[in-house]
Specification:
The protein is of the alpha/beta class. It contains 9 helices and 13 strands. The protein binds alpha-D-ribofuranose.
Length: about 300
């Protein structure tokens, strides 16, 4: 079994479902429902790896608080290796406030808390697990991401960037050799100024990112439109599959983790993207962040049903 080291964030998500989000200065009374659920881009991806049958070592930082203890317990139940999760004595566990509208779209505000104090020493120690790939997102400090990329490069380990949340001032040029760079539509627009709305704008955005990042593949996540795969020469949109959307939270985290899982398994990149689309499609059909992530069996059964060859 392949092993992935996830160096990324962990949050408790406070999720409120609503008919519509309030305007500035407006108070909306909303009695649909709310819940505290495990989330964080890194944790969602770590859960996805575990459920999809990949060994996962999770390097993150939690607070010394109730949320931190609850989250660690949940990761252990999922079979994630938690031995490289640090605990900050002062910073609280990260928290995300998530508004989910009726069409399943979301708006997220993250209070990073302990995610912002992950150290280079924590990351260096986690590399001792000898992973087959290292996977990061941008919800931890920039210097931690750059440091992890340098270590992975030095050791010849494939390095994957699930590029959210995006900021125009993130130092993309400082990332050492990247294997897969994968932003969603919003993140693509932030990094490139191009909205990937059709084949030609997707190609233009992917080419721009290819010039900005030393990467082998660019994979744009396009929500309901699927994903755009670019290898420096060929680019193509691989569509997603029709389903009733309940909640898009964690769909991107699920997609990228599934993509890496199938890529490491030796699948050709195009098929790995199609299978990742299957995993993300299942995730959007269910409520919650990590709660929505499918298992390997569910993903393969769905792929079989819709004829992904
Ligand atoms: O990608 C979804 C995640 O983004 C949520 O779980 C939230 O915690 C934020 O990190």
């Amino acid at each position: 079994m392949k092993k992935v080291l996830v160096v990324s964030s962990a949050n408790m998500d406070f999720v409120q479902r609503m008919h519509r989000v309030p305007q500035r200065g407006e108070t909306v009374t909303e009695s649909m429902d709310y819940a505290y659920v495990p989330g964080g881009k890194g944790a969602n991806s770590a859960v996805a790896f575990a459920r999809l049958g990949t060994d996962c070592v999770f390097c993150t930082c939690l607070g010394d608080d109730e949320n931190g203890r609850v989250l660690r317990g949940l990761y252990e139940k999922e079979g994630i290796d938690t031995s490289h999760i640090a605990v900050s004595p002062t910073a609280p566990t990260g928290l995300a406030s998530i508004l989910v509208e009726e069409d399943g779209s979301n708006r997220i505000i993250v209070y990073p808390g302990a995610n912002s104090v992950i150290t280079e020493a924590d990351i260096r120690a986690a590399f001792e697990c000898r992973p087959d790939a290292v996977y990061v997102q941008l919800e931890i400090p920039d210097k931690a991401v750059v440091f992890a990329s340098a270590l992975a490069h030095e050791r010849g380990i494939p390095f994957v960037v699930d590029a959210g949340p995006a900021r125009t001032d993130f130092p993309l040029k400082e990332l050492a050799g990247v294997c897969i760079f994968s932003p969603n539509e919003t993140e693509t627009k932030v990094f490139t100024g191009i909205a990937p709305v059709d084949e030609s704008s997707r190609r233009a955005a992917a080419e721009t990112l290819y010039r900005m990042v030393k990467t082998e593949y660019v994979v744009l996540k396009l929500g309901g439109a699927g994903a755009y795969l670019f290898d420096g020469m060929r680019g193509m949109t691989l569509p997603s599959y029709p389903i009733e959307v309940k909640d898009t939270t964690a769909a991107g985290d699920t997609f990228t983790a599934a993509l890496v899982r199938f890529y490491l398994d030796g699948e050709p990149m195009e098929r790995a993207v199609r299978l990742a689309n299957c995993a993300a499609t299942i995730a959007v059909s269910r409520p919650g962040a990590s709660a929505s992530i499918p298992t390997l069996e569910e993903t393969l059964a769905f792929a079989h049903k819709i004829g992904v060859g």
